[in-house]
Amino acid sequence: MIYQEFYIKDYDWTIYAYFAVDCYYTDDIMEHLFKLRCNGRNAKQAYQNLSACKLDTGLTYTCDEIRSTLLVVGLTSSEGEFMNSFSHELFHAVMHIARANKLDIFSESPAYLIGELTMQIYPTIKKLLKLKEVNMCKCKNKANLSRLEQLLEQLWYELPQFEIENLKTEILEEIEKIKECHN
Description:
62% helix
């Protein structure tokens, strides 16, 4: 999980953002929600969402009285799903802030606000996507290395020359896949 907190001076508003959240963090996030005066049906719904351990989900809760929003993006199945969940929750946050500040949602103000929020969150998103890419790469490398081991094991047996050439080609292809992952 990655946590980020930031302040939007123009609106005197604090955003608390949690990324790559799994159900292990349910109690911590619920405690934070309670501090933001989340209770009743909203708290029950948040708890069910957080404790379900589902991929590609999130939640946004706002307390207008203390001018704060808590945004959660859970673990996702892909970078595209991360951007989908992130955009979805960010939209809710912007709408909550717009409502509390009586902004015309068809004006430029919410558009500038979403831009400012995205800029403040961007370093975290960049880091997250890089980590996700690295983790995906590790998985691919393990699969490719496993395949290489199988191919090399076949070389230990006495094989006709044409089969050795085929294995050599396959091994070189697997090595290229590993190299591509690191570029």
